[in-house]
Structure prediction request, 149 residues.
Amino acid sequence: MSLYCWYGIVKGQQIVLRMDGARVEEVFQSEALPWAWGNIHGGAICPGTNGNFLLFFNSRIGGKDREKHRYNIGVAELSGSPPFGMVRIARKPCVRGEEGVCLDGNKRYKSNVVFACGAIRDAEAWLLSYGNNDNDCRIVKLQEKDLQL
Prediction:
Protein backbone atom coordinates (compact mmCIF):
# COMPACT_ATOMS: atom_id res chain seq x y z
CA MET A 1 0.00 0.00 0.00
CA SER A 2 1.30 3.46 -0.90
CA LEU A 3 0.73 6.86 0.65
CA TYR A 4 -0.17 9.62 -1.82
CA CYS A 5 -0.18 13.34 -1.16
CA TRP A 6 -2.09 15.90 -3.23
CA TYR A 7 0.56 18.60 -3.51
CA GLY A 8 -1.33 21.25 -5.44
CA ILE A 9 -1.56 22.90 -8.82
CA VAL A 10 1.44 24.52 -10.45
CA LYS A 11 1.16 26.20 -13.87
CA GLY A 12 -2.03 24.34 -14.75
CA GLN A 13 -0.66 20.95 -13.70
CA GLN A 14 -2.06 19.02 -10.75
CA ILE A 15 0.74 17.38 -8.76
CA VAL A 16 0.35 14.25 -6.66
CA LEU A 17 3.28 12.71 -4.76
CA ARG A 18 3.80 9.07 -3.83
CA MET A 19 5.52 9.08 -0.46
CA ASP A 20 7.74 6.73 1.52
CA GLY A 21 7.66 8.33 4.94
CA ALA A 22 9.02 11.84 4.41
CA ARG A 23 10.71 10.91 1.11
CA VAL A 24 9.08 11.53 -2.27
CA GLU A 25 9.15 8.29 -4.26
CA GLU A 26 7.36 9.45 -7.40
CA VAL A 27 5.73 12.60 -8.80
CA PHE A 28 2.55 12.41 -10.90
CA GLN A 29 1.34 15.33 -13.01
CA SER A 30 -1.89 15.78 -14.92
CA GLU A 31 -3.77 18.69 -16.39
CA ALA A 32 -5.89 20.61 -13.90
CA LEU A 33 -9.38 21.56 -15.00
CA PRO A 34 -10.25 25.28 -15.01
CA TRP A 35 -11.81 26.87 -11.93
CA ALA A 36 -13.20 30.42 -12.11
CA TRP A 37 -12.90 31.30 -8.40
CA GLY A 38 -9.13 31.71 -7.97
CA ASN A 39 -6.14 29.39 -7.61
CA ILE A 40 -6.88 25.98 -6.13
CA HIS A 41 -4.91 25.07 -3.00
CA GLY A 42 -5.19 22.99 0.15
CA GLY A 43 -8.13 20.85 1.06
CA ALA A 44 -9.04 17.26 1.80
CA ILE A 45 -9.18 14.10 -0.31
CA CYS A 46 -11.85 11.50 0.42
CA PRO A 47 -12.93 8.23 -1.16
CA GLY A 48 -15.64 8.98 -3.70
CA THR A 49 -17.74 6.66 -5.81
CA ASN A 50 -16.73 4.17 -8.48
CA GLY A 51 -13.21 3.93 -7.04
CA ASN A 52 -12.51 7.63 -7.61
CA PHE A 53 -11.67 10.32 -5.05
CA LEU A 54 -13.19 13.67 -4.19
CA LEU A 55 -10.92 16.63 -3.51
CA PHE A 56 -12.55 19.38 -1.45
CA PHE A 57 -10.27 22.36 -2.09
CA ASN A 58 -9.90 26.03 -1.24
CA SER A 59 -9.58 29.05 -3.51
CA ARG A 60 -9.61 32.83 -3.18
CA ILE A 61 -10.72 35.71 -5.37
CA GLY A 62 -10.38 39.44 -4.84
CA GLY A 63 -6.86 40.50 -5.83
CA LYS A 64 -4.30 42.06 -3.51
CA ASP A 65 -6.68 44.07 -1.31
CA ARG A 66 -7.36 41.91 1.79
CA GLU A 67 -10.68 43.65 2.37
CA LYS A 68 -11.96 42.37 -0.99
CA HIS A 69 -10.86 38.73 -0.59
CA ARG A 70 -13.46 36.01 -0.62
CA TYR A 71 -12.50 32.39 -0.05
CA ASN A 72 -14.45 29.48 -1.50
CA ILE A 73 -14.55 25.71 -1.16
CA GLY A 74 -15.01 23.70 -4.32
CA VAL A 75 -14.82 20.04 -5.21
CA ALA A 76 -13.20 18.02 -7.96
CA GLU A 77 -13.43 14.33 -8.76
CA LEU A 78 -10.04 12.64 -9.24
CA SER A 79 -9.44 9.30 -10.95
CA GLY A 80 -8.79 6.45 -8.55
CA SER A 81 -5.30 5.55 -9.80
CA PRO A 82 -2.09 7.38 -10.77
CA PRO A 83 -1.75 10.03 -12.05
CA PHE A 84 -5.11 10.78 -10.31
CA GLY A 85 -6.25 13.13 -13.09
CA MET A 86 -9.19 15.46 -12.63
CA VAL A 87 -12.25 13.78 -14.09
CA ARG A 88 -14.53 16.74 -13.45
CA ILE A 89 -14.71 19.88 -11.34
CA ALA A 90 -17.64 21.72 -9.77
CA ARG A 91 -19.34 24.48 -11.73
CA LYS A 92 -19.41 26.72 -8.65
CA PRO A 93 -18.30 26.70 -4.99
CA CYS A 94 -20.20 24.50 -2.53
CA VAL A 95 -19.28 26.80 0.41
CA ARG A 96 -18.49 30.53 0.18
CA GLY A 97 -16.88 32.79 2.74
CA GLU A 98 -19.29 35.05 4.60
CA GLU A 99 -18.68 38.44 6.13
CA GLY A 100 -20.09 37.40 9.50
CA VAL A 101 -19.79 39.36 12.73
CA CYS A 102 -17.10 39.19 15.41
CA LEU A 103 -18.67 40.05 18.76
CA ASP A 104 -15.78 39.13 21.06
CA GLY A 105 -12.98 41.25 19.57
CA ASN A 106 -11.01 38.18 18.40
CA LYS A 107 -8.00 39.53 16.48
CA ARG A 108 -7.71 36.31 14.41
CA TYR A 109 -11.16 36.93 12.93
CA LYS A 110 -11.04 37.46 9.15
CA SER A 111 -14.30 37.86 7.28
CA ASN A 112 -15.04 35.94 4.05
CA VAL A 113 -12.63 33.08 4.89
CA VAL A 114 -13.48 29.38 4.56
CA PHE A 115 -11.12 26.42 4.17
CA ALA A 116 -11.85 22.70 3.87
CA CYS A 117 -10.52 20.47 6.66
CA GLY A 118 -12.03 17.02 6.06
CA ALA A 119 -15.05 15.22 4.71
CA ILE A 120 -16.85 11.92 5.12
CA ARG A 121 -19.81 10.37 3.37
CA ASP A 122 -22.72 9.22 5.50
CA ALA A 123 -25.77 7.35 4.24
CA GLU A 124 -27.39 10.53 2.90
CA ALA A 125 -24.76 13.15 2.12
CA TRP A 126 -21.24 14.50 2.54
CA LEU A 127 -20.30 16.00 5.89
CA LEU A 128 -17.64 18.65 5.29
CA SER A 129 -15.74 20.21 8.16
CA TYR A 130 -14.31 23.63 7.47
CA GLY A 131 -12.69 26.60 9.12
CA ASN A 132 -14.81 29.75 9.16
CA ASN A 133 -13.39 33.29 9.31
CA ASP A 134 -10.23 31.99 11.05
CA ASN A 135 -12.43 31.99 14.14
CA ASP A 136 -14.40 28.74 14.43
CA CYS A 137 -14.97 25.31 12.91
CA ARG A 138 -18.17 24.26 11.22
CA ILE A 139 -19.71 21.23 9.59
CA VAL A 140 -22.01 21.46 6.60
CA LYS A 141 -24.10 18.66 5.13
CA LEU A 142 -23.84 18.61 1.33
CA GLN A 143 -26.14 16.61 -0.91
CA GLU A 144 -24.81 15.39 -4.26
CA LYS A 145 -26.64 18.26 -5.99
CA ASP A 146 -24.78 20.76 -3.77
CA LEU A 147 -21.43 19.58 -5.11
CA GLN A 148 -22.29 20.93 -8.58
CA LEU A 149 -20.20 18.25 -10.31
In short: The first strand starts at residue 3 and ends at 10.
